[in-house]
Amino acid sequence: MKNPVKIQHKYTFIILIGLLMPFFSVAQNKSNSFRVVPLGVLGGIDESNLSAYMLAAKGSNNYICLDAGTLHYGLQKAVDNKVFSLPAEKVLKQYIKGYFISHAHLDHIAGLIINAPDDSTKNIYGLQSTLETIKTHYFTWASWANFANQGEAPALKKYHYTALVPGNETAIENTDLKVQVFPLSHSNLTSTAFLVRSNNAYILYLGDTGADEIEKSSNFQNMWQAVAPLVKSKQLKAIMIEVSFPDEQPDKTLFGHLTPHWLMVELDKLAALTGVDAIKGLNVVVTHLKPPAVSISKIKTQLKVANKLQLNLIYPQQGKALNF
Ligand SMILES: Nc1ncnc2c1ncn2[C@@H]1O[C@@H]2COP(=O)(O)O[C@H]2[C@H]1O
């Protein structure tokens, strides 16, 4: 015969676990899901520090690289800072499993082109329009060598173009990550936002973009609709977004970029979808600040003043890891 005391203990235990579950999941939400290693953080003229961010699931060395403006110099800095225990050349070849190019402006792709001779085989992901520009303007025999698998013959086939289509989630080869893309308006170009998922955690990286009102677009609004539920559920660990110019830059010479004012206009629209409580404390990594130094310090001051939503504003540093 079964011991009724033992049965009672069993049920008490099950009820206790049930009651404690929410606390376990909160603890899980607070632990880090991603590691970001910035290889280049600025927009503009410093060719040793242009947009490129390595991203992996926490504890994994299977990184992707979001944009690829500067690679070698940033990798060397990261190695000097002991972020990696391998030499820079090996990190490039062995840890970076694919490139995600938001748009084909030089400051987002120069590092990839220049480092191609010493790189290993991997995919280049992007919208079809971005891949076409790389194919017809950079990996050609007139401007460099064709290291890719399409375009001018002979194709050296080191890189494989992999077109991403908005609306689909794509598994990223040789990683446990998945990605969705959103089109962004960047003056005459379509730029891209990458929403990267590791299990149930997300990070959103935006390439260059202007505000909907300036760009006469609904791209931001459409993207906010898609990510607002992830902000509410605390699954979105960070947004990496550009602010290129201080507020003094006239709207007519923004060239498809954001200022502190226009960033907050867009984040207010996200807050309208999530509620202000849900967005408070959200990690916002500010990218693509354009020199000179005086403009960069203006941007930082203006963002601090404009931060009514109480976001956690983060300024990435080249070669220093961030955890989210
Ligand atoms: N019409 C223009 N006149 C002058 N400069 C421009 C114009 N359009 C783009 N640019 C510059 O070209 C740069 C290309 O990269 P960015 O978009 O970061 O920033 C852009 C501006 O600095």
From TrEMBL:
GO molecular function annotations of the record: 3',5'-cyclic-AMP phosphodiesterase activity; 3',5'-cyclic-GMP phosphodiesterase activity
Keyword Oxidoreductase part of the UniProt annotation: no
Coiled coil (UniProt feature): none
Keyword Repressor: no
Protein name: 3',5'-cyclic-nucleotide phosphodiesterase
SUPFAM superfamilies listed in its UniProt record: Metallo-hydrolase/oxidoreductase
Gene Ontology terms describing biological process: cAMP catabolic process; negative regulation of glucose mediated signaling pathway
